[in-house]
Predict the structure.
Amino acid sequence: MPSHGGHVPVLLSEMLAALAVRPGGVYLDATFGGGGYSRAILDAGATRVLGLDRDPAAVARGGRLAAQRPAFAMLEGRFGDMAAHLAAAGVARLDGIVLDLGLSSMQLEDPARGFSFAAEGPLDMRMSGQGQDAAELVNRADEATLATILYRYGEERAARRIARAIVERRRRAPLATTRELAAVVAGALGRQSGRIDPATRTFQALRIYLNDELGELERALAAAEGLLAPGGRLVVVAFHSLEDRLVKQFLVEGSGALPRPSRHLPEPAERPAAPRFRPLHRQPVRPGAEELAANPRARSARLRAAERLAQPEAAT
């Protein structure tokens, strides 16, 4: 089911199965993007759906959907701040929250956004269009800072080599475009074998750092716990290991499924906290062969979902 603008929502039917939309329910699509998830949730019978996005282009698309569907409302802002945005909209409890952490096709395919090196464009990479852009980062950060960003957020083993090459290149002239940066990375790494372009991890790292994507995700997960009503569902689709690891750790801790201490150690003095979530799957849900054939960009998607549990009342 492609949404407007040609964007194909990933794991759409799996998301709906995990969300289990119920009549009368209120749902948040916290990464509106192309709007495919929001439309599907509305079509599944939700009474009210709110979209949230910090990308002005996505907010404009959401505004058009709101004009067509009275049950939908569009909010502008970061999903890490979802609690504040929902409070301003008069919403205190939700029956479901969806987070699709990947870039939309519209973001990737617009050269002016600078997210992709597939076409020449300015080194931007900002979700909201505000704050430091990628050009400023690669042209001003010192070599050690660049290497740390590439290693931490791109899991790039050649981070130091790439950072050194960037610094050497910018001494001649500032890096200004996506393909200039991709060429520097390719030159530093030499001929590479494999399915992904050698610049992929570098672009991922810079984008994650500039947009504080991991910090946003941590704040969003914590906020979701407080916003979901008992029985409400949290569904997260991640596209790289750093995000997926954060989601997995959050749900493991929230479900009480922590490793048991050694039998040789004394019993802990305090009883463990009551589980707050019930994971819906033992392993992350991945796209099937049919979806991968139709949308190769879905290959790295991983869906994790959980149900919010009612908490025991505190003793008085």
Summary: The CA atoms of residues 139 and 171 lie 9 Å apart. DSSP finds 13 helices and seven strands in the chain. Residues 1-5 have pLDDT under 50 and may be disordered.
